[in-house]
Give the backbone structure.
Amino acid sequence: MFGSFQIASIAGIPIRVHVLFVVLVAGLALVPDAGFLQLAILAMLVVSVVLHELGHALVARRFGIRVVDITLWPLGGLARLSSIPESSGVEAAIAIAGPLVNLFLALAAAPVVVAGFFLGAREAWVGEAAFAFVAVNVLMAGFNLLPAFPTDGGRLVRAWFARSRSWLDATVLAVRVGRAMALLLAVTGVVWGQWMLPVVALWLWWTGGLELTQVRARAAAARLEGLGARAPDPAVRA
Ligand SMILES: [Zn+2]
């Protein structure tokens, strides 16, 4: 991704950050009245995003897909895969892995939240930080599971449609459902005065269309190759 640089490597996967992400995090960290808890939440958010993407990446690797890198940018993380498998089983497994990591992290931190109730006032921050960690991860899982293709939930919707349809038809339907969801998000954002939601909705609308164009191009190429015959089965299939 243009304007990004590598900061680490986990399990042989380069972790990169985009300049805009650095600006956003620095901006949030340097807010004059940012307390310890706010900074801790910011750090937890970054760690949770990386682990979410690692979930996708490691499951993809199990299916023999090369993971190019993971990039953090203002709207979250992106795991770039060398190929996109046109298989509902593989797609569903890779898509669900990210939100599952978040739910696992939330469950793992839940006992600390409970323990926080029994700590004295001086150690109350432990419970508060754990609660924030649980909240961050539940929200991250929830947002990503929205059926707003190309979110993880949207990919699950496509995988579901692809069980009985061509990959292209399944993508068309998933994008349609995704755009309805994006519209709902945008309207909700306007009603609530949350300006980030229409931005995210626009992003989902645009990237969904972009991926549909790619699937269309691959389907057209496959048709040409088959000289009008049935498109060949994709190489990766669960
Ligand atoms: Zn994800």
Observations:
- Residues 231-238 have pLDDT under 50 and may be disordered.
- The helical segments are 19-29, 36-62, 88-117, 124-144, 152-162, 167-192, 196-225.
